[in-house]
Amino acid sequence: MDGDITQHGNDAADKEVARLWRTWRTVHEMLADRGYEVSDDELTISLEKFRRDYADPLGFPEEPLANIYLFYSRARMKIVARPTELMKIKYTALPSKSNPDPQPDCGTIYVDFCADASGVGTKQVRAFNHTVDENNYHTGIFITQGNVSPSALRLLASIPGHICEHFQEQDLLVNITRHELVPKHVLLSPEEKAKLLERYRLKESQLPRMQITDPVAHYLGLRRGQVVKIIRRSETAGRYASYRWVI
Known about the structure:
- It is found in: Nucleus.
- Belongs to the archaeal Rpo5/eukaryotic RPB5 RNA polymerase subunit family.
- InterPro entries: Arch_Rpo5/euc_Rpb5, RNA_pol_Rpb5_N, RNA_pol_Rpb5_N_sf, RNA_pol_subH/Rpb5_C, RNA_pol_subH/Rpb5_CS, RPB5-like_sf.
- The chain folds into 2 domains: 2-52 and 75-174, Dna-directed Rna Polymerases I, Ii, And Iii 27 Kd Polypeptide, Chain: A, domain 1, CATH 3.40.1340; 177-246, RPB5-like RNA polymerase subunit (Eukaryotic RPB6 RNA polymerase subunit), CATH 3.90.940.20.
- Helices cover 36% and strands 17% of the residues.
- The chain has helices at 2-34, 40-43, 47-54, 85-90, 122-134, 150-156, 190-200, 215-220, and strands at residues 79-81, 109-113, 139-144, 163-168, 184-187, 209-210, 227-234, 238-246.
- The strands form 2 sheets. A 4-stranded mixed β-sheet has the order 1-2-3-4, covered by helices on one side. The chain has a 4-stranded mixed β-sheet with strand order 5-7-8-6, with no helix packed on it.
- α5 (122-134) runs parallel beside α6.
């Protein structure tokens, strides 16, 4: 009987570690797709290496000291990444009279996995916000195992000069942009956007629209006013592009 219990525990541990590993890899893919510096080792980390780095002796992802068997927590799974030069270009406004030397509106991003399995509220978000603010991270991503209260979500968006986002782990088990039915989305730089509008003699408001709440927009961290190029496959034309204005 003890053997059955042990085997059941091992099966549960294997499933939980594999689940968290998939989320971990998707997060790194998301950062790379947004334009942050991510190494190949981080993108291709194996399940076994992840298990060695982030699982306790029983095989479960390490949580707070709820019992004597657990020594670490998801707090060890912090990620900090810097923007690439290409990303800086895409997030730098065109020069103007009022701003002749615009600076990139992007910077270091911080990702935190919340260890609390349930009941995530303002207490946990305040701690996350404090880390983002204290370290002057431009952007923060708070990843939880379950839902976050509405008041906590409002608090997450309340740090002046910083962008904070929320994802649930289950939303990152699969990278939606890798699905065959999801076309490739490419963010245009302000210069590319201006050339597009000039070429077709359009105002940005005349472009088809994309809600900022769209799952792909959320994944890419798009902002209102940006334009994305959407590349689709066609049996007759090979590939064709369309454009969306993020609102």
